[in-house]
Amino acid sequence: MKKIEEYVRSIPDFPEKGIIFRDITSVLQDADGLKLAIDSMIKLLDGVDFDVVVGTESRGFIFGVPIAYALGKPFVPVRKKGKLPCETISEKYDLEYGSAEIEMHKDSILPGQKAVLVDDLIATGGTIEACTKLIERLGGEVVKIIFLMELAGLKGRDKLAKYDVSSVITYEGK
């Protein structure tokens, strides 16, 4: 059986020279790779007591929904500003070149609920840090954050230092 790293396609010099882009579409397009990715992420949750899975648009949905389904938990989407139909709360965060804003429904996390955050990749950590703020503003508790891949050279864990963070794959570079 192949290791998950073998399903990830590495593309040199994208989006710019010197960067190695870690492409998950090759994982998603292979049934065995997708199953291995989901199963590996689920293993990161062994022994974790939680009530709800929270995922970011859009790749956090790809991994978060099957994890929630497999573990019998509800799924809460975090979306880009203006995409959710009911009353929301929002959080702005910085990107490498600019800023962005995400939202979640005000009634999506109840006070005291324990949340697991799921995304495909941790790079600088800005998006997930913003998600933690939303969950906590609604009275929830972030008990674990999981990723399929981590780009350790971008130091995203530094922004998430007070949380329990795990990744299936860690790449030392950027």
TrEMBL record:
<comment type="pathway">
    <text>Purine metabolism; AMP biosynthesis via salvage pathway; AMP from adenine: step 1/1.</text>
</comment>
<dbReference type="Pfam" id="PF00156">
    <property type="entry name" value="Pribosyltran"/>
</dbReference>
<dbReference type="GO" id="GO:0002055">
    <property type="term" value="F:adenine binding"/>
</dbReference>
<comment type="similarity">
    <text>Belongs to the purine/pyrimidine phosphoribosyltransferase family.</text>
</comment>
<dbReference type="InterPro" id="IPR000836">
    <property type="entry name" value="PRTase_dom"/>
</dbReference>
<dbReference type="GO" id="GO:0044209">
    <property type="term" value="P:AMP salvage"/>
</dbReference>
<keyword id="KW-0660">Purine salvage</keyword>
<feature type="domain" description="Phosphoribosyltransferase">
    <location>
        <begin position="48"/>
        <end position="165"/>
    </location>
</feature>
<dbReference type="InterPro" id="IPR005764">
    <property type="entry name" value="Ade_phspho_trans"/>
</dbReference>
<protein>
    <recommendedName>
        <fullName>Adenine phosphoribosyltransferase</fullName>
        <ecNumber>2.4.2.7</ecNumber>
    </recommendedName>
</protein>
<dbReference type="GO" id="GO:0005737">
    <property type="term" value="C:cytoplasm"/>
</dbReference>
<dbReference type="InterPro" id="IPR050054">
    <property type="entry name" value="UPRTase/APRTase"/>
</dbReference>
<comment type="subunit">
    <text>Homodimer.</text>
</comment>
<keyword id="KW-0808">Transferase</keyword>
<comment type="function">
    <text>Catalyzes a salvage reaction resulting in the formation of AMP, that is energically less costly than de novo synthesis.</text>
</comment>
<dbReference type="GO" id="GO:0016208">
    <property type="term" value="F:AMP binding"/>
</dbReference>
<dbReference type="GO" id="GO:0006168">
    <property type="term" value="P:adenine salvage"/>
</dbReference>
<keyword id="KW-0963">Cytoplasm</keyword>
<keyword id="KW-0328">Glycosyltransferase</keyword>
<dbReference type="GO" id="GO:0003999">
    <property type="term" value="F:adenine phosphoribosyltransferase activity"/>
</dbReference>
<dbReference type="InterPro" id="IPR029057">
    <property type="entry name" value="PRTase-like"/>
</dbReference>
<dbReference type="GO" id="GO:0006166">
    <property type="term" value="P:purine ribonucleoside salvage"/>
</dbReference>
